[in-house]
Amino acid sequence: MKRLFDITLGLLLLPILLVPMIIIAVLVRLSSEGPIIHWSDRVGKNNIIFKMPKFRTMHSESPNIASNLLNNPEDYVTSIGSFLRKSSLDEIPQIISVIKGDMSIVGPRPALFNQYDLIRLRAENGIDQLAPGVTGWAQVNGRDDLTTVEKVAFDIEYLNRISFFFDLIVLWKSISILITRKNISH
């Protein structure tokens, strides 16, 4: 049922998101040199690496690590990048990954390939058996403010509570956070 929900919602959202995607693509292209889409190596279900698309928000020469690990992440963000990140508009291309089956609408946020502690803790707790999500329980309960251990604790809670109705709660909280911009630091 979860996969059917993902495909249905993904296919419904795709035509609605097409115009904003084109506008954002033009803005990304005009704001800095480099590709419009950044294809990030992420850890998917069963710890299989997949390419996750996002609108590029950082300069092309930026280090390939989680932005919260950078000393001054704002030094690497493009002029439009900060807005795209805070509004989560950089995440829109992930709808393609949902339709393709690499991601789910709701699930643990996909780790970068080099977030070894997060990957290990998730594997130890069975979270690696879930498809990563565009949004997730940890995402709506702290996002950028959570430690790795806290993220995994929320991922474990999601694993234990997973259901269609719980996914709807996560989606509702995600929309609320996007509107209020709560817990979004960069």
Structural account:
- This protein is mainly α and 186 residues long.
- Helices cover 47% and strands 11% of the residues.
- Strands 1-2 form a two-stranded antiparallel ribbon. A two-stranded parallel ribbon has the order 3-4.
- Helix 4 packs parallel to helix 6 (148-161).
- The termini are far apart.
Q: What's the short story on this structure?
A:
47% of the residues lie in helices and 11% in strands. It has helices at residues 2-31, 81-86, 94-100, 116-124, 137-140, 148-161, 164-180; strands spanning 37-43, 49-55, 104-106, 133-135.
SSE layout and pairing:
Blueprint: H1 2-31, E1 37-43, E2 49-55, H2 81-86, H3 94-100, E3 104-106, H4 116-124, E4 133-135, H5 137-140, H6 148-161, H7 164-180
Parallel strand pairs: 3-4
Antiparallel strand pairs: 1-2
